[in-house]
Amino acid sequence: MGTDVAAAQLQVLNLSKHYHGVAVVDNVSLTVAPGEFVALLGPSGAGKTTLFRCVAALTPLDGGTVVVNRRELHTLRGAQLCAARRDIGVIFQQFNLVRRLTALHNVLAGRLGYVPTWRVLLRRFPAADRQLALACLDWVGLLGHAYQRADRLSGGQQQRVAIARVLAQQSRFILADEPVASLDPETAESVLDTLRSIARERGIAVLCSLHQVDLATRFADRILGMRQGRLLLDLPTAQLSAVHRNLLYAAAAPEAQSMQQRSTPMPFGVL
C-alpha cells in the first residue's frame, strides 16, 4: 500500500493534533515518494487542512513526527527550519497571490528564502532568479502573461502562477490544499494535469487534497482517505471501490463500525 519508508520524500509517523481536547488529526501515518502524486480524500472537517499545516510546520504537533527530505521538521529551529521549509511548496485553494503585483513578481516570491531582505523590499532580485521565474511561468504556459497583474488573470491562470511560484522555490515536496475547489471542471482538470506532470517529469512528491473523487481516480497514483481525523484508506488508485467511498463519506462511520462488530474482513486498503 504505502511507499517504502527509505524511499519516501515525506514520512509522517503517528501524527496527532488536538484543539480544545478534540483530536483533529488522530495518530496518522503516511508516506509519499519522489515523483508520486497522492490524492487525499475525505469529507469537510476530516482534518485534511490541519494535517497539511502540521506537515508544513505551520503549527506545532501534539505527537508524532514529520520527516521531509530526511529532516525531522519539528526538531529544527531558526535558520535550519527556514532552510527545511524551502523544500515544501504549498498551493492554496485561493491562490494566495498579491493581486496588485505582476505574475512575474508573484513567482519571484518563491525565491524569498534565498535572497537578502533588502532585495525583497526593493524588488531587485538577481538576474538568475528572474530568469528562473520566467522559465517557471513558461513551464505552466503563462510566459506571455508574465507582466500582467494577478488580478487581471482568470482563476485557472492565477492557480498556475501559484504553481510556478513553488517551482521557483525549487521545492522537493508539494502540498496542494484543495487547489481546484474554486475552478470550473475543465480548468480543474488542466491544473491537476500540471501537478501530475510536475510529479512525473521533475520527480517531485505531490500530496493533493480533493473533494472530487472522480478527479482523484483520474489523476492520482495513490489514494489516501481521512475521516474524523483518522486515516482510513491507503491504496493504489485502481483499487478504490464503492465500499471504500462509503467508508469515507455518508455511510462511513456506521458501516465501518458494523463490519468491526461482525468481525467482517475489511476491504483491501482500509487501515
UniProtKB/TrEMBL annotation:
Classification via Gene3D superfamilies: P-loop containing nucleotide triphosphate hydrolases
Keywords from the named record: ATP-binding, Cell membrane, Membrane, Nucleotide-binding, Translocase, Transport
GO MF annotations in UniProt: ABC-type phosphonate transporter activity; ATP binding; ATP hydrolysis activity
Domain ABC transporter: 10-253
Coiled-coil residue spans: none
Any one annotated GO CC term: membrane
InterPro entries on file: AAA+_ATPase, ABC_transporter-like_ATP-bd, ABC_transporter-like_CS, ABC_transpr_PhnC, MetN_ABC_transporter-like, P-loop_NTPase
UniProt-recorded name of the protein: Phosphonate ABC transporter ATP-binding protein
Gene: phnC
